[in-house]
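Memo to structure team: turn this sequence into structure tokens by end of day. - J.P.
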Amino acid sequence: MNKVHVIVNPFSARGKTGKRWNAIKDVINHYFKEFKYIFTEKPRQATEIARDLLKQGFDLLIGVGGDGTLNEITNGYFHKNTHQTINEEASLGIIPSGTGSDFIRFMRIPREFNQSVALIKNSGMRKIDVGKITYKSSEAEETSRYFINIASFGLGAEVVRNLSVIPASKHGPLS
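Reply from structure team:
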């Protein structure tokens, strides 16, 4: 039996995730009788939370959010300094609740909460590749980050930053 912990980004989907958390929690409770959960409060916090939970022995982390939340949790699967995996046997599930959610479209993960949680519980896990990028931070420190979906910098980061301040009704389905 898995030791399950859910990491919730209540700010994902422009705050809608926090508002629909009780409905999501009810669905999770239907499939996993024992689980714990925690809300993130600031950017990149999901990385540290995931790291701590894996060190505590949790072997199934479920992220509730979008691509950003998924990326943060992915980075938490690796030790900060040694970059070794914390727990090779640990799995990561995602309950889609983001704005773009590009990864879930690519992996054909259903957007409907009941279906995505059922997939995590019943369909088993599959291994996927993890990419690593090493770069110099703005403080000229060598920094590494991991990704499972996409790595971008420069223009890609600027587009994301600009889209986050424009109302969703203005930028349409291509964003």
